[in-house]
Design brief:
- This protein is of the alpha+beta class.
- Helices cover 46% and strands 20% of the residues.
- The protein contains eight helices and five strands.
- Strands 3-2-1-4-5 form a five-stranded antiparallel sheet, with helices on one face.
- A hairpin with a 3-residue loop joins strand 1 and strand 2.
- The radius of gyration is 19 Å and the shape is elongated.
């Protein structure tokens, strides 16, 4: 597999770019074509997909982290590369990881093409996996925040609450306290208070 390409952007369309590499014009499906400028040198991390209907397609990402998140997304049952690109065109890879870590199904289901059931499936499938990918492109404060949310969810799991109860509690504290700078102890206390009602 080609890991990345480095060349000059020669054309930009709504969902794709063409990059000239070694005299060849290669077309890449990208999450945000508006970030590309004709005539500029561009490095893209790649993923190639083969479809029996459309043949090969190449997907391009400006960062390895973004590609890693994309690969996790398409690992979910029923989500193909086109939907994966669609998701990342609406939400950054970092924000997607945070939403999954916080079990924020409301945020995920607000994306075009992702309903409530698909959002639930994404959270269940990826919550533990997203913590294993490199967080090098996530600011330190954000990475620490991800760990706190994951720890709260894990603690509730260990206290024998059902997945539905844990998801409800995580939604509640996400809506109320996201961005508040609350500590693990505070968030756990708020979630336990919610579950005791």
């Amino acid at each position: 597999m080609i890991n990345y390409v480095n060349g000059v952007v020669v054309a930009v369309a709504d969902t794709s770019v063409i990059i000239e590499v070694g005299g060849f014009g290669l077309s890449f499906q990208v999450p945000n074509s508006g970030l590309f400028e004709v005539g500029k040198q561009q490095k893209l991390f790649t993923y190639m997909h083969w479809s029996s209907d459309n043949g090969p397609s190449i997907f391009g990402f400006q960062a390895e982290f973004e590609r890693a998140v994309f690969l996790l997304i398409i690992d979910c049952q029923g989500i193909g590369p086109k939907m994966g690109i669609n998701i990342l065109s609406q939400i950054s890879a970092q924000e997607f990881v945070l939403a999954v870590q916080a079990e924020d199904e409301k945020r995920l289901s607000s994306l075009n093409g992702i309903g409530t059931k698909k959002a639930e499936q994404i959270v269940v499938s990826l919550r533990r996996k997203v913590s294993k990918i490199s967080s090098g492109d996530i600011p330190q404060a954000v990475a620490e925040n991800m760990g706190i949310w994951n720890s709260v969810s894990d603690t509730l799991d260990s206290l024998s609450y059902s997945k539905t109860e844990v998801a409800s509690a995580m939604r509640f504290i996400r809506e109320k306290y996201a961005g508040s700078g609350c500590s693990f102890d505070q968030l756990l206390r708020y979630s336990l208070s919610f579950l005791s009602k």
